[in-house]
Design goal:
Elements lengths: L2 E5 L4 H13 L3 E5 L10 H6 L7 E4 L2 E4 L1 H11 L10 H22 L1 H8 L6 H24 L13 H15 L8 H11 L2 H4 L3 H4 L4
Parallel strand pairs: 1-2
Antiparallel strand pairs: 1-3, 3-4
Helix pairs in contact: 1-3, 1-7, 4-6, 4-7, 7-8
């Protein structure tokens, strides 16, 4: 059975899963869920995913949600190439970098949080953008320090790991919001190395965007 990804081209959480599927060489079809049109909130979609978020992946007779859990499933069920080191301390280090993005940056700057700031909390766009940049810079500064000592071409060593799978969409997002990135040489190097690989490049929002 071909895997089926419920996806929005600009969603960074979905972008992570596209990269992981490509790295594992798993073929999949995409089911577009337009966040711009609010399709993630439709009853039909919520019946499948009660959180009303993308991504959601149907694979091996399972319906999986939460991008980190999906990537960990893929790494367990399709071990090659590994996205996490085998040695426990190295594995914890890579997971810590990935979770810095997934738990400490992304939840503060995703669409629904930004909409809540400008909607119910009546904040102007400048405050929203300041909020976005503040939390992204704080998170990326920590990640730069975490990565620096054990990075190679990638965030950990010389092959991409789950940390790079999460880094690339976060850097894409930061650029969309004009966050200055010069203070993060390790992150920039890892991002460039990853983006030069076809599994990462093929997952880029511009490559999967709906036809205009
Ligand atoms: N922790 C979740 C976050 C998923 C998430 O926030 N997805 C966003 C797109 S990046 C979404 O579906 N937003 C829809 C909404 O906020 O209404 C994951 O990693 O899968």
């Amino acid at each position: 059975m071909t895997a089926r990804l419920f996806d929005y081209f600009r969603s960074s959480a979905a972008y992570r899963v596209r990269i992981a599927l490509n790295l594992k060489g798993i073929s999949y079809t995409r089911e577009a869920v337009s966040l711009a049109d609010g399709e993630q909130k439709a009853d039909a979609y919520r019946a499948l995913n009660p959180q009303g978020f993308v991504p959601m992946l149907e694979i091996d007779g399972q319906r999986l949600t939460q991008s980190v859990a999906i990537i960990q499933y893929l790494d367990a069920a399709y071990p090659l190439p590994p996205l996490l080191p085998f040695e426990p301390a190295e594995r914890a280090h890579v997971q810590a970098m990935a979770l810095t993005i997934a738990c400490d940056i992304h939840p503060l700057n995703n669409l629904r949080v930004l909409k809540y700031l400008t909607g119910p909390l009546a904040q102007p766009p400048e405050v929203r953008d300041d909020w976005y940049r503040h939390w992204v810079r704080e998170g990326l500064s920590a990640l730069e320090a975490m990565a620096a000592s054990r990075a190679g071409d990638f965030l950990f060593g010389d092959a991409p790991t789950m940390a790079d799978v999460l880094l690339v969409p976060q850097m894409y997002n930061a650029r969309r919001f004009d966050v200055p990135l010069d203070d993060y040489p390790t992150l920039l190097r890892s991002d460039a190395a990853a983006c030069s690989l076809e599994p990462f490049a093929a997952a880029h929002p511009d490559r999967v965007a709906p036809a205009a």
